[in-house]
Amino acid sequence: MSWRVIKSLVKKDVIQFFSNKFYAVITVLGLVFYIAIYFALPKTIDDKLSIGFYTKLSMARALAVINAQEVNVIRANSVDELMRMVKEEKIVAGFVFPDVIPVSSQGAPTVTVKVYVPADMEQEMRDAMAYVAKELLNAEAGYFLNIESENEVVGVDLAGKQIPPSKRMIPVFIFLILMAETLGLANLIAQEIEQKTIHALLVTPATVADILTAKGITGMLTSFVPALLLTWATIGFGHFVPIIVLLLAGTLFTIAVAFLVGSLGKDLMSTLMWGALVMIILLLPTANVLAPGTLTSWVKAIPTYYFVDPLHRVISFNAGLEGIWKGIAVLLGSALLLFILSNAALRRRFQ
Amino acid sequence: MSTSKIVGLLKKEVVLGLRNVIFPWAIVAPLLITVVMSLLTGVFFARPPRLGIYAPGETQVIQLARETGAMRVLQYSSAEALKDAVSQGVIDVGVIVPDGFDEAVKSGEKTTLRAYVFGESFSRNRAVIATTFGNVVRQIAGRELPLSVETVTVGEGALPIRERLFPFIVLLAAFFGGLLIPSASMIQEKQRKTLDAVMVAPVTPAEVVAAKMVVGFLVSVVTCVLTLAINRAFGAYPWHLLLAVATAAAMASAIGALAGIFLSDMATLLALWKSGALVLFFPALVYLFPKIPQIIAKFFPTYYVLEPLVQITKANVDFGAFWTNVYIGLVLDVLLLMLVFSQVKRLGYRVK
């Protein structure tokens, strides 16, 4: 390998990359767009249940029970005030309890509790509010159950201090930036094959190894730099070492993917389409970062799980290198495997 | 037009189409958007509470908990599986219901429950699960007040976000493949000059266009049905639903055929798809943003294929409005088809 040749090839590839307006625009626009969305998203999240009620009952016993469950409760002075609070979204539901607690005996008349809910409330939540109302009145009547509950919180208890959507989105944005640049690199490779410029290059002192190394370095520049800029713009310079290591490993993996997609694609359209299909599969693990539990254990079979999950743990739970090294190892191992596969595929197409 | 020739061309379209990357995309994209939409609504809006139960013995708890409708209830075969599900966030809370639990609560005997709580679960979900589960146990114990609940909706118009997103997803499912497949296929054939080769064969331009439209129509129907299945929105009238789907699919493939006849490159098609999307999807935006007056949506042709689709998936169908919109949709389809077949000669002129 000749580093002088590689340097010239990298220069050529970078110019070629940015001469494609589509990829040049998505690189810059993507970066600006993701940063703008991050700052537009809420930085806090209120995960508590807020309810209101109106009654002449004291509700002391019910309040003692409900307060233990970290529920915001507001007492209204009238039904109108209660309805207004629901309309203004100060509470998710308002209960109008009877002034007298009914007697629980066979043949006793049924008493109705009114539950006011907003029009856009999901049916499940409407049903849930009915049960909350019933439970409150049963508690107020002193109808306690002789049950003890031993609770064990699994993982970090985030009740009342949930990770806001803005923070959950960062690993997804970083991943999207990396993958978008991957498509650009894949297109460079596909063009080289389709326009037969690869054969012109191979009659120069450049070898196949030089060309692939140059493409890899170009990919490193066009993927790693925007991803790093996005990270710094959103979370600053905290977690410096684990973030840099993860981004490097992630970039290597996406370059390997780009080589593979590039060996499949024929032109901009087909590279874009095949690349996007691959990207969708690789994007699946981000679902669990956005909403934990969306996908079960099988998602761990997708290598990008070992990029987005450690990144999420570093950003949201302050994990260090010692907590994420296994993920990095899997990611690098997958990248190596893809490099071997794509190298073989590309060498075949180059010939 | 010869049916046998159209069938022959149709076979060619399907075989060659399967090799085209647009084909899998036409099916994947709407389904993907369905998944992404539901995922994002889970991130930015409340997710329903999810309770997991492991009960080694006989108990009414699972059945009664499911009947509440207030939470999703999953049953596990072991305490380890339950805890694993909690640790992955599949469920918010996992409860181990001990053997003989029902008898114990009925007799008022003190009972201990073991519960695993997912650390990242929302406080509101934990509260809903605790109170609903408490009510379930009350039913078994027979310790509950004679109460009934009347739920009153405050305000009007706004539907839950998932219901507001549904028309957009259905319309996308109908139009993405239905429109792009015939148009992209025709443009690609023009670019590769294969259309000229077909034109010198004993087939008419109308037969070529008809075959491409049928492929678009079938893909649109399949994608639409899959999307409805994912969204569990078949409703109670499957034949009416299929008619509504077919009306939408016919409109999509006719518009796709028109685009294919008039356009000559993929870049223009993609540009048209992006700019024309507002016209196609405007009626769906009216559902998404209820403050936009619905009367505006009626000026857009896709309203007359979307409205019957949305209507028929609801519990209370207004059949008067359904049939009116279906008839208008069918008339629009016929007009579009007449326009398509009046323009097919444009393809034929290429070889004259």
> Residue-averaged pLDDT of chain B, rounded?
83
Q: Which two protein chains have the largest interface (Cβ within 8 Å of the partner's Cβ), and how many residues from each?
A: A-B, 85 and 80 residues
Low-confidence parts of chain B = none
Question: What is the H-and-E element order of chain A?
Answer: HHEHEHEEHEHHHHHHHH
β-strand number of chain A: 5
Count of DSSP H/I helices of chain B: 15
Instruction: Give the distance, in angstroms, between the N- and C-terminal Cα atoms of chain A.
Output: 19 Å
Strand portion of chain A, in percent?
5-15%
Question: Biggest sheet of chain B, open or closed, and with what strands and sense?
Answer: 4 strands, mixed
Structural class of chain B: alpha/beta
Principal-axes shape call of chain A: elongated
Which term fits the overall shape of chain B?
elongated
Indicate the radius of gyration of chain A in whole angstroms: 29 Å
Measured distance between first and last alpha carbons of chain B: 20 Å
Strand share of the residues of chain B?
5-15%
Which structural class fits the helix and strand makeup of chain A? Answer: alpha/beta
- The total count of helices of chain A amounts to 13
Mean pLDDT of chain A: 84
Radius of gyration of chain B: 27 Å
Structure explained in plain terms:
Chain A is an alpha/beta fold. A four-stranded mixed beta sheet of chain A has the order 2-1-3-4, sandwiched between helices. The mean pLDDT of chain A is 84. Chain A has two domains: 228 residues, no CATH class; 92 residues, Periplasmic binding protein-like II (D-Maltodextrin-Binding Protein, domain 2). The two termini of chain A are 19 Å apart. Chain A is elongated and about 95 Å long. In chain A, helix 6 runs antiparallel to helix 8 and helix 8 crosses helix 9. In chain A, 42% of the residues are buried. In chain A, 64% of the residues lie in helices and 9% in strands. Chain B has 352 residues and is an alpha/beta fold. Chain B has two domains: 230 residues, no CATH class; 94 residues, abc type-2 transporter like fold (3-Layer(aba) Sandwich), CATH 3.40.1710.10. Chain B has 15 helices and five strands. Chain B has a four-stranded mixed beta sheet, with helices on both faces. In chain B, helix 7 runs parallel beside helix 10 and helix 10 packs antiparallel against helix 13. The longest helix of chain B has 31 residues. Chain B is elongated. The model of chain B has no long low-confidence stretch (mean pLDDT 83). Classes of the chains: A alpha/beta (351), B alpha/beta (352). Chains A and B meet through helix 4, strand 4, helix 5, strand 5 and helix 10 of A and helix 2, helix 4, strand 4, helix 6 and strand 5 of B. Strand 5 of chain A pairs parallel with strand 4 of chain B.
